[in-house]
Amino acid sequence: MTVTEAKRLIQVGHSPDPDDAFMFHALANDCIDVGPYRFTHELVDIETLNRRAFQGELELTALSIHAYAFLHDKYALCSCGASMGDGYGPMVIAREAGPLESLEGKTIAVPGTLTSAFLALRLCLDQRPFEHVVVPFDEIISVVQHGRYQNRRIDAGLIIHEGQLTYSQSQLKLIVDLGAWWKELTGLPLPLGANGIRTDLGATTMREVERILYASIKYGLVHRQEALQHAMQYGRDLDPRQADQFVGMYVNEWTLDFGPQGRRAVAQFLQMGHERGILPELVEPVFIGP
Question: Which of 245, 255, 249 is nearest to 217 (CA)?
Fold first, then answer.
């Protein structure tokens, strides 16, 4: 048996976007010591990762906080690796500007029904009815421009990832920034994504894998230009300045540790989802680490 074969395999899943690529650069490119583990990486859109997590396919995976409400029996949340929108976040855009009320009864293209963006949208619209169509996240801007998707009329789109910086280049208008809405409502950052570790790995392995993830994030922050260069290959339509800005939005002090305020934000997001009848049970988030 070779040394490589003897190491414990940890399969990692994360989104093919600049902030996740930045976080995982050191781990993917052998920049840090991973001890008795061997990591493989799959880059998959977040909704697909959410769905795959129900089968527990990956030991370490990016998860939407929304999806975690249905997966807390299989995964615990890492204290590091958070994607938090502190006064900014997913956006609803349309061809014409209008108030929030203009979305009532309209059809909105969304990147997945388990995304935190979708939960935030439902909370924001509250009792206002709307239709939704699931569209790959990187096609939503184009779909809104054209107003149709697979013979369905599309009135607006819920955008995540780098679309938050590029939508205006397509002459589209902002209806609501859900991160700004949440901040005004609660005073907290909007908890969008986290990294989940499968609980059947056991407490020791879970802590060790989290420590390695923390080291990868820390390496990227210390070696920012190196990590940015790696992340740029996933920056669809982003120039270097925009890629730097986008990474800074979602890889920061919140990413190193949720901290008390970040943990409170996760708990409140899930609690409100339950109170509004969107989430079937009240979930108390479980974090690895201090």
Answer: 255
Active site residue 161: yes
What sign does the CA torsion over 95, 161, 11, 78 have?
Answer: negative
Residue 247 to residues 89, 207, 215, 281, Cα–Cα distance (Å): 13, 26, 17, 33
104 and 242, same domain (yes or no)? no
Q: Buried (b) or exposed (e) across 200-230, using 16+ Cβ within 10 A?
A: ebeeebbebbbbbbbbbbbbbbeebeebbeb
Local structure of 76: helix, strand or coil? strand
Tell whether 97 is covered by a domain: yes
Residues 70, 54 contacting (CB under 8 angstroms): yes
pTM above 0.90, yes or no: yes
User: Is residue 57 located within the same domain as residue 101?
Assistant: no
Q: For residue 115, what are the contacts with CB-CB under 8 A and spacing of at least 6?
A: 46, 47, 50, 64, 66, 67, 90, 160
Measured distance CA(154)–CA(164) in Å, rounded: 18
CATH assignment of the domain containing 233: 3.40.190.10
The active-site residue out of 25, 66, 161, 230 is: 161
pLDDT (tens digit, 9 = 90+) per residue, 81-136? 999 999 999 999 999 999 999 999 999 999 999 999 999 999 999 989 999 999 99
